[in-house]
Structures are given as structure tokens and as C-alpha cells.
Design goal:
about 525 residues, 16 helices
Length: about 525
Amino acid sequence: MSLGLALTAAALLLAGCGGKVQRPDCPAGQVCLEYGNGSEPATLDPQSSSLIDEFAIIGDLMMGLTTDSPQATPVPGMAERWETSADGLVWTFHLRAAKWSDGAPVTADDFVYAYRRILEPKTASVYAYLVFLLKNGQAVSEGKADPQTLGARALDPRTLELTLSHPAPYLPQLLKHTSFFPVPKHVVERYGDQWVRPGRYVSNGPYKLAAWRLGDYVQLVKNPLFYDAKNVCVDRVNFYPTTDSALAERRVQRGELDLNTSFQSNRIDRLRKEMPTYVRTHPSLATSYLSFNTRDFAPFKDARVRKALSLAVDREFITSKLTRAGQIPAYAFVPPGTANYVFDAHMAGYGQAYPARQAEARRLLAQAGFGPDHPLKFQIKSASSNETLLLMQAIQADWKAVGVETSLQQNEGQIVFEAYRNRDFQVGSMGWYADYNDPVTFLALMRADTGAQNYGDYRNPAYDALLDAADHEPDGMARAKLLSRAEQIMLDDQAIAPIYFVVNRALVSPKVTGWVDNASNFHRIRWLCVKP
């Protein structure tokens, strides 16, 4: 039986039998890792990806100019070293001698090609706005400038020059994001969008793609042409979609999975008793929030309605009684621990007792024309998981208490985020994890020109102007204060309803070594190993 058939059979047996351990055989002399990864990836294309669970896989297939250390801090990746001009606008990267997994050299032109590609409208990347940081990036994306004018050029095969539209001292953080990964020009031009298929996928990271069976697993194997292959321990890793956290928990406990990237928060006390050496928690650079479709749903065009709904959410109950893993009620968007920031911004209701917030919510709804004879009605859309369902049910009950009628709809992660991007929702449950450790990774979401990921279509020229001013402010503290002022405007406008600041949660077998808890929650397989 082939490995693929064996894995499929194992999955079917797992569904039908109880305690028997179902784990694919590991070839003799190799180290194998079975990885529970949350959701099925929609793509493994760096320039099309948008989900954390995709990044977990792509981040070991591909490598940018910088990459994640075990602590998720930026360290040299494809670039061995770099220099920056005195004004902070021109960065020169010197590439190491590296090869793609098919033996072709990785060149500076592969980076230039990737950056132009993500800005092409036909790529339809929700992350194109990140590359607006490069000179003429936005103009190229909007068809107002030739791609040749983009601030990225190959000085020679191993020297890449990036010219920025404004200084960005956080650039090394940003360059380890998938949007700034190179792609193999010679392969993409041959196969087009189909280059991501197994057998065609060419990578420059520590692993290469061996198999991808939808709904079952994505399999990576060690890339012998990776420049540091001798120090990569794990030979093969299978990434499984684990949307059912309770099932994933049992699979980790039985040894079928070596780790799972989440667990249900309200089970933390039981897990600490039953599997104390497996439970890993750490404060995250992430915020759970609600987005309101202000473009298509007329009641949400009224800020009083959005404010009432935000005030009516009992964040203290949610974090103390439902989640219980250390989550903190959120009255702002930028989470604690974010670098280069001052935490002065707060939404309405901060420091106010919950009954007073409820009373104000009822008053605002009445002002907006909603009440017992004319209740506000809408649908809440969220990704499928037991934990999200509990959260949405709690919020639904909070809103019912102030006279609002809601229904719930859950879909698979890929489906629901596609709906959010297409504005096929009224209220959506979101979570934003920092792409890099700087407040701009959160605040840029709400810019008018961000595009699809500005799910509620928030627009305020004063907000955008403050972000622009911060981009050009050389003094770090002055920049932080400008960004905080911008956040306060956005919160006053009720652009979103923050719910809580996230805690990273994982179940990691004691057999797995090299896992380092960190706020960014990035854990590259190249740093991990598995004890026999």
C-alpha cells in the first residue's frame, strides 16, 4: 500500500474506531512529525495566501530575505546581510548562494518578480497593500505606473535593492511574511497558477512539497538542496486540518498527532490535569473582534448602532467564564506587548460597569429607531469551531438582552473568509494575528486603500492622514503617539468591536523538542525535532 493510501485508510479507521492508535509509519532512520494545523489551506502560493494555517506550511517551503528564529524574531534568511541608507529609504540585500529545490539558483530577480506579481490585479492578493511600502507600489497595483518603476531591482543575481516609499525600521520583521517571499520565476512562467501542485512546486526553504490530499493532509519532506539542510532534524511532516479541536485533543493524547496548534480554551483546567506536560499557552499579538458590514447593511451605517452592539458585549464574562485561558477583555485593537507603541487608545465603555453599558446600548438603539416594536435583526457569520460557536452564542445572548435579534451561521474557514472578502456577511467574527511586531500591522487594516481585509469598509481621511504622518515621522515616540491618536479615532468611529486579546494555545508532545513559546506564534519545523 502506498503511503498516501495508508494515510487515507488511517483517517477512515480513526473515524470508525476508538482507542487504537492510527499513525502512518515513519521510514527507518528518519524523523517524522504529525502536525495538527487547524484548517485546510486554500493555497500554498505565497502571494495568494491569507490564512495563518497556510503560513504555517508555506513558511517551511519558502524563505524570504529574513526568516523566523525559534523565538519568531527576524534573522537572516535568503539574505546573509544588508545595509540601509542614511534616510532609511534604500535597503541593499546580499543574497547567500542558495538553490531552488530543482537545482536552479535563487536570484534577486526571483524577488523582484514576486513583488511585481503580488501587485498585479489578476493575482487578487488581499495582502498587496503590504507591498505598497515599496516605492510606486500602490501606483503599480492601481495600473498608474509601469511595474518596471517598482522600488525593487536586481543589481546583480545576488544583490537586491529595495527602495521604500517611506522609512520602515520594522522592514526585517515584514520581510519574513509570505507576501515578500520569492517565487521561482522559471516555474511560475511555465505553469501559471498551477505551479503550486505537487510535482511542480519548487521551493527554496528547508522543505519541499511531496503530497497534498484535500481534506486529509499536506506532506512536506526535507529539501536536500536547502543551504542549512544538515541542521534540519525532521525528515517528513504531515500537516492535518484539525477543525474539531476535541478530536484533535484525543489524537494528540493517543500519539497520533505530535502537536495541535490550538485547543478549546474552556478545557484548559482539565487538560492541565490530564496532559500537564502538553499544554502550552503564551500571550499573543492577536485580537479577536467583530466587523460590521457598513457597505451593504443599512443599519450599520449608523455609528450609534455599531456603538450599541459593542457596548452590549460582556467581555469580562466571556474571558473569565468562557475562554478561561488568560484572554484579556479588549477595549482597543492593538494588543499589549506590541512593539513601538503607547497604549492610550480605548473604545467607549472602557472602565464602565456592564449594566451601565447595557443601559447606554438600549438608549442608542432607541435613538437609531430600534426597539421592541421594531427590533434590529441580522445574521452573525463565523468559522466553524466549538469555541467560536460558544463565543457567538454568548454575544448573541448579550445582544438579545438589549432587544436585538440575531441568527448564527458557521462555515469552514476558507468559505467564511471568502465571504468576508466579498462582503457576503452582516456581522463577522474575526481574529487578527500580527504579521510583524509593530502597531501598523493592526492599524493598516482600517485604511481606506487596504482593500479586501478592511472587511467593514471603514473610511476616515483623518485616520489615514495620521497613519501617513506616522510613516514619515523619524522620532519613535512621536510616531507611536500619532498611531495611538489614529487608533482612538477609529475606535470612536466604532469601526470594529474588539472582544478580547488572544492567548496562543497549543498541545505539544514532550517528545517534540525545539518548540519555543512566543507572542507571534510562529514555529518553523526546521527548528523542531522529535525524540524516538
